[in-house]
Write the structure tokens for this entry.
Amino acid sequence: MRSTIGIDSLALGVPRGHLDLRDLAAARGVPASKYLDGIGTHRMAIAAADEDPVTLAASAARRAFALSGLDPKEIGLCVVGTETAVDHSKPIAAFLHGLLGLPSACRIFETKHACFGGTAGLLNALDWIASGSARGRSALVVCADVARYAPGSPGEPTQGAGAVAMIVSERPRLIELDVGRSGAYARDVHDFWRPLHSKDAAVDGQLSVQCYLDALAGAYGEWRRDEPADAEPLARTCYHVPYGKMARKAHRRRRMIDGLDEASADATFAAEVASSLLLPAQIGNVYTGSLYVALASLLHAEARAIEGQRVGLFSYGSGCVAEFFAGRVAAGAGELVARLDLDAPVRASTRLTMAEYEAIRSADAGADRRAAPPSAALHLGASEQPVAFLGVDTADRRIYGLATPS
């Protein structure tokens, strides 16, 4: 009998500071309800000059190892999904290899397809283990992004930053995933993009919403066709969450595909989805990590109550591609979730003033070109101190080191 495969440990990494959307609303002269209720987000994590997808990924991965009791030496595959990469050639996975002390016999690479990159890494890890290539080892899959939009633009309140690290193993203690069973959908569209010369994303908002919903219908329909007639129904569903209101629209569309009318579909939202949106509302958009922040939120709120039950997972990446798949919350997951303390990084975040936020954003353009201290070291190994981006050396190589305590 083949062993189960899935997510054995999970942890978040977020920037030190966040902006409360009530402060942004006041500064932009709009009612707070436009952000809090209209998009379903209360605050957004803001990456400072020394925080980037590498430092956020390292923070999340260190927590995943430290709190789960797993050893980085057991990792044979490290994949990082991102759409805000720090280098056109060197992957974030290579930086993580040094920062985490992963073994030399380890396959490492980066995946990109807008917000789908993390899911591409996760599905690859599942297949790697199922094929026998893992030979008893585990995989580290990290989703890490910094979502930026121009100050004053319509996208500004949908920013965010963070990382989700998942350790994928046989006999997982959190989520047993359905290996080899998913529904996929893809189209070539221009709903969202980020030119190589820009840190800020560009988006066709109305088209993006429609593409998301069309992709959901296509992927979910494909997944349903492969479901056995007597399959256990999904107790909860987590969606890609660029902002909370999008998940509400997605759930309505999915449940109407199941045959419910609009009112009945909406009535299932509180029980089936709401708890997965608590942490996304406190972090904002994490691009590749958005679905998995929702999963972390669900587990943090309800793991004990839904042990043994099935959970649906919908991932969307603009451009576009989508996948719907499912898994089962493992027996005993509640106890591990309590130990992982999933929301601790969010609780530790400090509220920024508008002046602090605007200073960070105005410095974005030069953040990647400042000089690093000549004595800075890259390979840090294990440490409780956070990792910081220190700048670039004379050859434009990015340098990471221990953050200076504030």
In short: The chain is about 35% helix and 25% strand. The longest strand covers residues 175-186.
